[in-house]
Amino acid sequence: MTMDKMNMMAEPPTFHPNPSKPAYVPPAGAVDAHCHVFGPAARFPYAPERKYTPTDAPKEMLFSLRRHLGFARSVIVQASCHGKDNAAMVDALEAEPETTRGVAVVAPTISDEELRAMDRAGVRAVRFNFLKRLVDAAPREDFQRIAERVAELGWHVVVYFEMPDLPDLAPFLRGLPTTVVVDHMGRPDVAEGTDAAPFRAFIELLEDEKFWVKVGCPERLTVEGPPYRDVVPFARRLVETYSDRVLWGTDWPHPNMKSHIPDDGLLVDLIPSIAPTPDLQRKLLVANPSRLYWGEK
């Protein structure tokens, strides 16, 4: 297939063309700890096995948005549309080595030298995606071997799953030899409320201090829609209970979003609702991600 045909197949943009300027001003050194880059496809083609074809959203757009929102640093997570070719993500890290870190997706056959090269570029974690609608299933033995190898580099593991899958996954996750960061609050069903059994099981998982959690992405979880007030009780409970192990990110450019195009300024303005004190905001946006990704005390 030609590049022109691939570009013609691209889905409509999932990112806002003119996001609002947030009223909330993040503290100095704030980190967007979950965002992505897409392409550009002419330089970084999308993976043949991808489940969706995004509109290009290159590093220049990401860095411009970060400044617009008032953030100082970014953690760029490898998106499933690029498969296990991390070139676009690594290129973004190398463009701004002081202000970016990365989360890679790798094959179990990756060489030690490739891992070391990504480490030098600023990669600090690997991501395991368990959503079958986004990626083809992989044997857990492969994930286990990968985790054991990256543990030697001091990396951690980021996991993406949906909450109904947690009972089956929990023993495997507990056995991983690294810190484990859960994306998007484990995707709870917000219509069930915070007292529902699945969310209580997730809270139980987080009692183990090896687990961290990202509390962003209300646009994916909401039932009511913007301004996502129905998601606030979930995120706020996690921030207040596990204040030293929470992270926040925009999820820009909001891959595979179908319901609406989120306004990133609105997402930032939700932060004081989930982290209601300056101390909680500093931990969420500065201290925690700086410790985990930059090794700062």
List the helices and strands and how they pair.
Layout lengths: L2 H6 L22 E5 L23 H11 L3 E5 L9 H9 L4 E5 L7 H10 L1 E7 L10 H12 L4 E5 L5 H9 L5 E3 L14 H10 L4 E4 L3 H4 L10 H10 L4 E2 L16 H6 L1 H4 L3 H17 L3
Parallel strand pairs: 1-2, 2-3, 3-4, 4-5, 5-6, 6-7, 7-8
What does this structure look like?
- The protein has twelve helices and eight strands.
- Helix 6 (166-174) packs parallel to helix 7.
- 42% of the residues are buried.
- The protein has 297 residues and is α/β, with parallel strands linked by helices.
- An eight-stranded parallel β-sheet has the order 1-2-3-4-5-6-7-8, with helices on both faces.
- It has helices at residues 3-8, 59-69, 87-95, 112-121, 140-151, 166-174, 197-206, 218-221, 232-241, 264-269, 271-274, 278-294, and strands at 31-35, 73-77, 100-104, 123-129, 156-160, 180-182, 211-214, 246-247.
- It has one domain (3-17, 27-294): Metal-dependent hydrolases (TIM Barrel, Alpha-Beta Barrel), CATH 3.20.20.
- InterPro entries: Amidohydro-rel (IPR006680), Aro_Compnd_Degr_Hydrolases (IPR052358), GLI/LigI (IPR047874), Metal_Hydrolase (IPR032466).
- Pfam families: Amidohydro_2 (PF04909).
- This is Metal-dependent hydrolase.
